[in-house]
Design goal:
This protein has 367 residues and is α/β, with parallel strands linked by helices. It is built from twelve helices and 18 strands. Bound molecules: zinc ion (2 copies).
Length: 367
């Protein structure tokens, strides 16, 4: 079948809306008619060349839609189901899956960077030549083929634009607080960086009744927004010493949990300086893989725990329906995260806006 997709043919060039061909489904494939697809900063990193992937490639890893067809071995999903795509499908039985680390699933880690599905093949082509999948999802398109473990059935009550952002930004932030760090009621939390992921850390901390939720960013607009998502205190990093201000709010000790969601060398350093001895730092942001980041040795001592989290310890089949329930129950904000709605044809404008740091999340809507 043929379908339209936004294709990245060259680094730092506009995406082109092109007609591609989808191969017949393999036995464990799920064909999704994409209805909404969020523009995530990681897509932008591929466009800008900070993350190297084989080209041409179809980006988009925050998608929701309707299952159109399934391969003959698929049992957990059927045609007509509404699904959110997971960008970390996993085999369930490799070295890491058996150790409860699906984020490191070996078939995923082997094939995702090569732009293929878990079986090491692409399903998309253009004039007979291979087009690559991005993170086993490629949802900036009318159709996406994902493995069964990447198609997560959700209730039909939630709109597709709200649902799709659960697939990356919401899961990554809320999951970091609730699943990865397991913030407990009453604990003090710092979120460094109040973009899409940082705001979701804040609302994750609120979900579990954290005590002080301290938002750190630059500028009144971002900090006001952080308060709307549940921050109890805000610190403008351009005004005075952040470490001293966090200590002043936490009886001089530092915070129980610090989440770094800004992705800068100095904010990684700031994260370990603001956590208390014995507390936990969760690194969510990223810098270029070859960039060096330095720390004051003393800031790493004192039984501090430092962990990296890419997807909030997601177990999508457990967590996506849970997050939908939290939204439908009025405890999780999704409407407020969406600051732009565009068509697929307007996707380059959407990424230009993201590159300028405007808004929180832009979602491409597909008819
Ligand atoms: Zn993402
Ligand atoms: Zn695996």
């Amino acid at each position: 079948m043929n379908f339209q997709a936004a294709v990245l043919n060259q680094i730092n060039a506009p995406l082109a809306i092109e007609t591609l061909t989808m191969a017949p489904l393999a036995p464990t494939d799920v064909l999704v008619r994409v209805r909404a697809s969020g523009l995530c900063h990681t897509d932008l990193e591929v466009i800008q060349g900070a993350l190297a992937y084989p080209l041409p490639i179809v980006l988009g890893h925050e998608g929701a839609g309707v299952v159109e067809a399934v391969g003959n071995e698929v049992t957990q999903v059927r045609a007509g189901d509404h699904v959110i795509c997971s960008w970390n499908p996993h085999c369930g039985h490799c070295f890491y899956c058996e150790r409860d680390l699906p984020i490191l699933c070996e078939p995923f880690s082997r094939n995702q960077p090569r732009g293929f599905l878990l079986d090491g093949r692409s399903r998309m082509s253009r004039d007979g030549a291979t087009v690559h999948h991005y993170s086993v999802t490629s949802t900036h398109a009318q159709y996406s083929v994902v493995p069964e473990s990447g198609a997560i059935v959700i209730p039909k009550e939630i709109a597709f634009d709200r649902a799709c952002i659960i697939g990356c930004g919401v899961m990554t932030g809320v999951g970091a607080a609730v699943r990865k760090a397991r913030v407990e009621a009453g604990a003090n939390v710092v979120a460094v960086g109040c973009g899409a992921v940082g705001l979701n850390v804040i609302q994750g901390a609120k979900l579990v009744d954290a005590g002080q939720i301290i938002a750190v960013d630059v500028g009144a607009q971002k900090l006001t927004r952080a308060q709307q998502f549940g921050a109890t205190h805000t610190i403008d990093a351009s005004q005075g010493d952040v470490v001293e201000q966090v200590k002043a709010l936490t009886a001089g000790r530092g915070a129980d949990y610090v989440f770094e969601a800004a992705g800068q060398a100095r904010t990684f350093r700031l994260a370990v300086e603001t956590v208390r001895p014995g507390g936990q730092v969760v690194w969510l942001g990223k810098v270029n893989v070859d960039q060096e980041v330095s720390f004051r040795w003393g800031s790493l001592m004192g039984e501090r725990r430092i962990v990296r989290s890419s997807y909030g310890d997601a177990r999508p089949r457990r967590d996506f329906p849970w997050l939908v329930d939290e939204y439908l129950g009025g405890r999780l904000k999704l409407d407020e995260l969406i600051t732009g709605r565009i068509t697929l044809a307007e996707i380059n404008d959407g990424f230009a806006s993201l590159a300028r740091g405007e808004g929180i999340r832009t979602v491409a809507l597909l008819p």
